[in-house]
Amino acid sequence: MTEPAANPLAADVSALFERLTYHDIAKTIDHSLLRPELDDEYVDQGIRLAARYHVASVTVRPVDVVRAVRMLDGSDVKVGTVVGFPHGSVLTATKVFETQRAQEQGAREIDMVLQIAALRSGRDGDVKSDIEAVVEVAHAGGAIVKVIFENAYLTDGQKIRACHACEAAGADFVKTSTGFAPTGATHDDVRLMRANTGMHIAVKAAGGVRTLDALLEVMTLGVTRVGATATQTILDDFKARKAVTGGSAPAERAAPVGSRSTDGY
């Protein structure tokens, strides 16, 4: 019988786990409520969960921003939403309007999808201008911008050019995926994005980070935010392991990261 391959990140993951507090791990998570079929009750429960677990933010559909802002009033959880989602192919003016309206309603984090087709076509100037227009409006209103690449459709060269466009446009984060493409975050993509953006730009992984071990692995590679729907599972696991005397080493091998998501993230 063939032995399972050793996890090359195991030592780094174990050391990271020992250093982290609950606050550290919770504040890496953007709890995602983006699937189109989610009804009001499900969204309300998700927003309450985000508040109860003190995550970084809840990322909701634009139609749910007002609801999330009202429910999270007085909490330490920010409200985020999506722009040009999920394909990135709306007009820049539409993205700007979506950003303005979201901010007026109280959103403080904007996850926008870049112009995928323009990037693939070599129109990097258009990609940069599109991002820059959203960044200008968002920053003027005190919001941050995370730019979604949708790496499933890009070559490594295109991903690198996207990193450069984001940096030139003043984005705050580069982000792997929407969670709705054939694949999501991969370790190779996270490494590439971290290596090709300045350290003042953060990296967000989305699509496939569904366990604590998967989260710890991408954190060792430079990720500081993840989009997740398995928030409760991840954070309950962290608390349970930390409750063991001396902590508990992460599992030898996390579930694969980057497989097709059936839940949006």
Secondary-structure blueprint of this entry?
Blueprint: H1 10-19, H2 22-26, E1 29-33, H3 40-53, E2 57-60, H4 65-71, E3 78-83, H5 92-104, E4 109-113, H6 116-120, H7 124-140, E5 144-148, H8 156-169, E6 173-175, H9 187-195, E7 202-206, H10 212-220, E8 223-228, H11 231-243
Parallel strand pairs: 1-2, 1-8, 2-3, 3-4, 4-5, 5-6, 6-7, 7-8
Helix pairs in contact: 1-10, 5-7, 7-8
Number of strands: 8
| Cα distance spanning the termini | 34 Å
Helix content: 40-55%
Give me the strand/helix succession. HHEHEHEHEHHEHEHEHEH
Average per-residue pLDDT, rounded, comes to: 92
What characterizes the major β-sheet? 8 strands, parallel, barrel
Shape: globular
How large is the share of residues in beta strands?
5-15%
CATH class: Alpha Beta
Strands side by side in the biggest sheet: 1-2-3-4-5-6-7-8
Work out the count of structural domains: 1
Question: From the helix content, strand content and strand pairing, which structural class follows?
Answer: alpha/beta
| Alpha-carbon Rg, integer | 18 Å
Low-confidence stretches: 247-256
| CATH architecture title | Alpha-Beta Barrel
Count of helical stretches: 11
Would you give the CATH topology?
TIM Barrel
**CATH homologous group name:** Aldolase class I
Structural notes for this entry:
- By secondary structure, the chain is of the alpha/beta class.
- It has one domain: Alpha-Beta Barrel (TIM Barrel).
- Helices cover 44% and strands 15% of the residues.
- It contains eleven helices and eight strands.
- The protein has an eight-stranded parallel β-barrel with strand order 1-2-3-4-5-6-7-8, surrounded by six helices.
- It is globular and about 50 Å long.
- The two termini are 34 Å apart.
